[in-house]
Amino acid sequence: xxxxxxxxxxxxxxxxxxxxxxxxxxxxxxxxxxxxxxxxxxxxxxxxxxxxxxxxxxxxxxxxxxxxxxxxxxxxxxxxxxxxxxxxxxxxxxxxxxxxxxxxxxxxxxxxxxxxxxxxxxxxxxxxxxxxxxxxxxxxxxxxxxxxxxxxxxxxxxxxxxxxxxxxxxxxxxxxxxxxxxxxxxxxxxxxxxxxxxxxxxxxxxxxxxxxxxxxxxxxxxxxxxxxxxxxxxxxxxxxxxxxxxxxxxxxxxxxxxxxxxxxxxxxxxxxxxxxxxxxxxxxxxxxxxxxxxxxxxxxxxxxxxxxxxxxxxxxxxxxxxxxxxxxxxxxxxxxxxxxxxxxxxxxxxxxxxxxxxxxxxxxxxxxxxxxxxxxxxxxxxxxxxxxxxxxxxxxxxxxxxxxxxxxxxxxxxxxxxxxxxxxxxxxxxxxxxxxxxxxxxxxxxxxxxxxxxxxxxxxxxxxxxxxxxxxxxxxxxxxxxxxxxxxxxxxxxxxxxxxxxxxxxxxxxxxx
Length: 513
Hints:
Layout: H1 2-16, E1 22-26, E2 42-43, E3 65-66, E4 69-70, H2 71-79, E5 84-87, E6 111-112, E7 120-121, H3 127-137, E8 140-145, H4 152-163, H5 169-176, E9 187-190, H6 203-215, E10 226-233, H7 238-246, E11 253-260, H8 277-284, H9 286-304, E12 311-319, H10 338-353, E13 358-363, E14 374-377, E15 380-383, H11 385-392, E16 400-402, E17 404-407, E18 411-414, E19 417-420, E20 422-428, E21 434-440, E22 447-453, E23 456-457, E24 460-466, E25 486-491, E26 497-501, E27 505-512
Parallel strand pairs: 1-22, 2-5, 5-8, 8-9, 9-10, 10-11, 11-12, 12-13
Antiparallel strand pairs: 1-17, 3-4, 6-7, 14-15, 16-20, 18-19, 20-21, 21-27, 22-23, 22-26, 24-25, 24-27
Helix pairs in contact: 4-5, 7-9, 9-10, 10-11
């Protein structure tokens, strides 16, 4: 792997000699909003092997586990410091009845998961198990209540069961089921995708329901979660417009969803591997679109919420390809390649730019589903390129965003798509370090760079580089390190720091002015 990267970097350096360098100037004296660590959130839905087999194996499994949660996966996720975990869905949330998942597991009723594959949901993982997972990970929790097929009383009782402190009937029931103290609940979603699988509603109708349901979303003082309204998808602006204009009570955030489909066609989305360059660029073009409509969302919110109390939770994003051949189409199994790592970095940069309003984002999904961090097969586990992109960006959690001036960035154009060949984001870490994240979107051309801070020269940079020989390079069980970060460093020469960014790569640096 190291020899391959040396060859790539040497070829990149030779090819870049004749090119004009891209100039990067970090404006360290112009701090912006804090990049909320929750932007690096995760999502675990009862879907395929996202929970059962991937995360949960049961306490009696031969696979090492802690109270049913497999230790290798939990330890890997702890290493990327998952800041917040969304559960139980997704579409599954609006058919989930929380009482099915409490009490002795042998007595829990099996149900049909009508959203994903029509398989049996055993309800082995319920409230107590999920909260145990969150505590093992050290994560905040983001629970979606069942607005689609549940009742307002059911939602209110679930929240009381979770948070009640006194000697109420629901607190007694929780204690009888093994939990004495109430849990801390940070985020509470009222419905999910109410425009679609959550009920096929119109924004005005959902706004009325939200006002109704939020009235009864009660919790003790000091443990009241932020209340989250289900927003729109794609280029839709009517949801955020309606909700921010009409709801004036207890709404802390509005969600938005957008997936990256290479073909933009839900019937034939495109392959996860062996894809043409046209599908590389079309996939990487999606974050640019997201950047544009987040700007429009912010304009609407600035008009309807001038006090800036409302946040955007981008709680479903990521690649979505055709399912892996031979798998159940309802399980959303897909391969994860270098393209997904670059796609993740581009999303991070967009969320950083809109950090004033975007306070949470949740990739779909954490294990074995869509753009997963971890893939498992029985006892085996492998970390994906997307996992490494998250790991490389750990220093950006709760960092202070900094503007970056770019000059001389070439366009990467193919067919109907044209995107900048370079994407960049800078920040001052919570520990004071100066950070720079870079992504070269071009699959064949390296980029020569010159880096400065406030117009002044930079002494050195150190960091991690993620790249590979092919666009669809992936980590497999038999070859788990094909796509893995490698150390990177460079020293200034003659007062100038020149760096060559290899094609199709992600580079995260600590900059030393």
